[in-house]
Amino acid sequence: MKLIDHVKPEYLRLLKKLTKNDMDSISSLPYEKYMSTALWKKIRLWILKRDSECCVVCKKEASEVHHRDYKEQTLIGGTPDMLVSLCISCHDKIENDESGTKRKDLHEKDHRLSELSSIHSVIESTGMTVKISTNEAHGVSNINITYIGALNCLEFYSLSNLAYSFCIHIMRNNRDKLKLPMPFGREKLSQKSGAKILSHNNKKPLATVWASTETILIKQYKNCPVRVAHELRAFIAASKYWRVSGSSKP
To answer: What is the pTM assigned to this prediction?
Structure first.
């Protein structure tokens, strides 16, 4: 069933209410009020179902529906191609510029939607490539991870997020040996002291992790019972988009 037929009862009921208030079209209704109508709620659910509740840009779970235009036919469900499912993050990237200022030009928003879709298509086809190098000094193993792919791909996935996920992963995989200080937030990775990975027994530091958008530095101390570099490579190999330079993945 077409969307416009699916929502026809809600449309007719809303139009009847508007007519009583001397309003002759859905587009004459303030947008905020339109978004609270039964018509829009039904349109939204139909679009999300059509898109399998996946963001059309990054394929993560979608919870929002974006209007590519605000014409009457779109508002009543007549042009479903002008409605797309998005995750909160991608929707924010489309609606707002880098400074957080809301975009008003629909063509600019559509260009941004197309741009983000193209960037993520590159990620899906080539992955997010990092280079890993290690060296030892004074009993400390230094593990350096550097992103070497296209910089615009970092709009979606950063090394700071990768580092945070890895810290959680290595702790869970080695609960009898390692622990993280709680609360453990991403902000610790950018602090001068870094994020500590502690001994489960005596809470002494076994490793320290620093991260930015493009780099990760892990210092593994000689008393660490876990092969951090080995676990890091395995973690990246099992990830969806990250890959180590020289590997065949994805």
So the answer is: 0.85
Distance, in Å, from the CA atom of 69 to the CA atom of 59, rounded to the nearest integer, reads: 22
Closest CA to 93 of 69, 80, 71, 111: 111
Task: Tally the domains of the chain.
Answer: 2
For 140, the 3-state DSSP assignment is strand
Q: What is the DSSP letter of 241?
A: S
Q: Residues 72-126: pLDDT tens digits?
A: 999 999 999 999 999 999 999 999 999 999 999 999 999 999 999 999 999 999 9
CA 241 to chain centre: 13
In a domain, 250, yes or no: no
Query: Is residue 97 in some structural domain?
Result: yes
The residue type at 27: S
Q: Answer for the pair 97, 133: CB distance below 8 angstroms, yes or no.
A: no
Q: Does the CA dihedral 37-39-44-45 come out positive or negative? A: positive
